[in-house]
UniProtKB/TrEMBL annotation:
The protein's name in its UniProt record: C-terminal helicase domain-containing protein
Entry annotated with the keyword ATP-binding: yes
Organism of provenance: Blastococcus brunescens
Domain of life of the organism encoding this protein: Bacteria
InterPro entries xref list: Coronavir_polyprotein_1ab, DNA2/NAM7-like_C, P-loop_NTPase, SF1_C_Upf1
Gene Ontology MF terms: helicase activity
């Protein structure tokens, strides 16, 4: 089944925020689980997005060779920093619906790839999604809990 995607499968605003976050990570020092310090370079940042159209926008905003892809591309890989662009402005705008965008496995894989820092770039409207089933409630609640436990940086 082919999904027709609308403009909600990409966000230039989020791509710009991701590019600023990616740039700000470059050259920073991080410490691994053994206490060893290293400088963060281009290969030390994974950028994840749910839709190929957003991946393309982000790739265009970053230097060649930046590690950008969907969750599927980075299965089993880790990096000191992971930036996850949720892309859609609201649940209503999400191509493929709440089930895809708020998928617990997708969210878990995206943020659990980070060895030191996970950044989730999202619209606050995604936290106020209407739900109709217990499964949708679990999915939206997981995102809300993640944001609640995070340090929020607005206007990066």
């Amino acid at each position: 089944m082919r999904h027709e995607l609308t403009a909600a499968d990409k966000s230039q605003q989020e791509a710009d925020v991701v590019a600023r976050l990616w740039q700000s990570a470059q050259g920073q020092t991080w410490r691994n689980h053994l206490g060893e310090e290293a400088r963060i370079g281009p290969s030390d940042v994974l950028v994840v997005a749910p839709y190929n159209a957003q991946v393309a926008l982000i790739k265009a905003a970053l230097p060649s060779g930046a590690r950008v892809g969907t969750v599927d591309k980075f299965q089993g890989q880790e990096a000191p920093v992971v930036i996850y662009s949720m892309t859609s402005t609201s649940a209503a705008d999400a191509p493929r619906g709440v089930g895809f965008l708020y998928d617990l496995n997708r969210l878990n894989v995206a943020v659990s790839r980070a060895q030191a820092l996970a950044c989730v770039v999202l619209s606050p409207l995604l936290l106020d999604a209407p739900v109709r089933t217990p499964d949708q409630l679990r999915r939206v609640n997981a995102l809300c809990r993640l944001v609640e436990s995070a340090t929020v940086v607005a206007g990066v």
